Amino acid sequence: MERMPSGEPRWELNFDERGGMSTPDRDRFLDEVAAENPATLFFFSHGWGTAHDAAKSLYDAMFPMLRDAAVAAGLPKPGFAGIFWPSLWFPPTPAVAPAMAGVAKPQSRTAEVSGADIAASLAPGFSDPDQQKALAELGELLDAPGDPAVSTETEAERERVVGRIQELISSIAAPAGDAEPEDSGELSLLLNENPKDAFQRTAKVFGSEGAGAGAQGIGDWFGRAVNGAKDAVRVLSYNVMKTRAGDIGRTGLGPLLADLHTRAPAVRAQLLGHSFGARLVSFALAGVGAPDRSPVTSLLLIQGAFSHLSFAPAQGNPFGRPGALNGFGDRVHGPLLATFSPFDWAVGVWYPRASFLTGAGPEAEADGRWDAMGKDGYQHVDPAADIRIPLGAFDFRPGTYYRVDAGDVINNVKDSSFGGAHSDIRKPEVAALAAAAARPV
Question: What InterPro entries does the record point to (predicted)?
């Protein structure tokens, strides 16, 4: 345990990719919380990005803001727990989104990133030696068009390279049996049996079909397919992170919260998650057990990178069945909030395109079934309400799903041409929203 400069307790909770908590010792953490007995304990999960230092930087920025907002909201004795988990990092990409330069179609420009850089960025997120080896080979093959060491002169050799890329992607993808329908649209690409066509279609969907000329020129099918394969690896990173975040939340954080409630029943837990971390804290609700075992009194999803239908019932759901978290909202004994922003291109532009590659047809794109929380908040839930930040005086109702328009706050698109404002969350207004939601109701 550490302490904030203002004296409040602060913990770093490190989870492995299977949901095991490596540090601190689980019992030690529970004992320390019971001894400190904070009235309000904020649990915050980062999104994509493996580096411990990057996640710590987020918490170093947000925890003081949360502390000040909690004090201003009259919340006594706050405490803070930062969740660290092995998410993945994809190299920065000089993308062009529709909101930029008036382009009609977004261009991922992933083709301009080398396969070696892609593999190196993803590798720290995997502990399995076989997956590490597969990523290294994948990086080499993604650079095949410009690598004289890789033979691609004949049609058969090109098809072999593309087929092997698909085999490697499939070997790393999350198992299909573990996927919820609303969050599994990308699996048809990752597990497809016709990579020659699928990767070219991916390049078209992501706008990278004419980028990054290889040795054979950008007009041939092989150049387009390799460009699309790089985008497919980005889709792979989404798939692995989504699945992993849910597993860690369900099997790691959820049971920990239940034990916390037993050990320190007076502690009120507030769950915050950004991007794929929003899925982690949400799926903790599925692992906490019955409602009376849950200490959770608010849930705040900040630009969530998972399905906006996750809490939806079957009625009105385009999938015709309940979302994976339908029925678990009552584990939150207060409000459930989800921010969205039109300036978040990661979840507003690229995320649905990754899922839309299922090839379900234009009606699937029109009904929004592949959209994310960070695009428009909870959908097809009841009771629901719409609010906007900056937030004035407001009393939240327990059990209500709040769609929070954050476009006036989460709107800086200058720092990432790919994600836009996706990570523009280090804001006092976001902290004030969390503190307002944490007030006893």
Answer: AB_hydrolase_fold
Yes or no: say if 127 and 16 are a contact pair by the CB < 8 Å rule: yes
Q: Where are the domains of the chain?
A: 2-88+241-409+420-438, 110-240
**CA dist 145 → 157, 211, 225 (Å):** 11, 13, 10
Backbone angles phi and psi of 432, in degrees to 5: -65, -35
Task: Identify whether 98 is preceded by a cis peptide bond (ω within 30 of 0).
Answer: no
Q: 89-107, pLDDT tens digit by residue? A: 899 888 876 655 455 677 8
Give phi and psi for 244, each to the nearest 5. Answer: -65, -40
Tell me, what's the pLDDT at 209?
Answer: 75
Cβ atoms of 48 and 280 within 8 Å: the answer is no
Token look-up 């009105």 returns 316
- Cα-Cα-Cα-Cα torsion 261, 265, 270, 275, nearest 10 degrees, comes to -10
Helix (H) or strand (E) holding 386: strand 384-388
Distance CA 216, CA 438 (A): 58
Looking at residue 415, its pLDDT comes to: 87
Predicted structure pTM score: 0.94
Label the pairing between strands 21-23 and 9-15. Answer: antiparallel
- Single out the residue of 346, 435, 347 nearest to residue 396, CA to CA: 435
Distances 246 to 73, 160, 169, 339, 358 between C-alpha atoms, Å: 31, 35, 20, 19, 21
What pLDDT digit, counting tens, does each position of 276-289 carry?
999 999 999 999 99
- Helices 195-206 and 221-248 cross at an angle (nearest 10°) of 80
Kind and range of the H or E run holding 273 = strand 268-274
- Tokens describing residue 70: 């909690």
Q: What is the CATH number of domain 2-88+241-409+420-438?
A: 3.40.50
As a whole number, the mean pLDDT across the chain is 91
Max intra-chain CA distance, the chain: 71
The sign of the CA dihedral 407, 365, 312, 283 is negative
Which run of H or of E encompasses 276? helix 276-287
> Cα–chain-centroid distance for residue 349?
14
Asked if 254 and 288 count as a contact pair (C-beta separation under 8 A), the reply is yes
Instruction: From residue 115, give the alpha-carbon distance in Å to each of 86, 145, 157, 167.
Output: 21, 11, 18, 16
Query: Taking a C-beta distance cutoff of 8 angstroms, is the pair 186, 238 a contact?
Result: yes
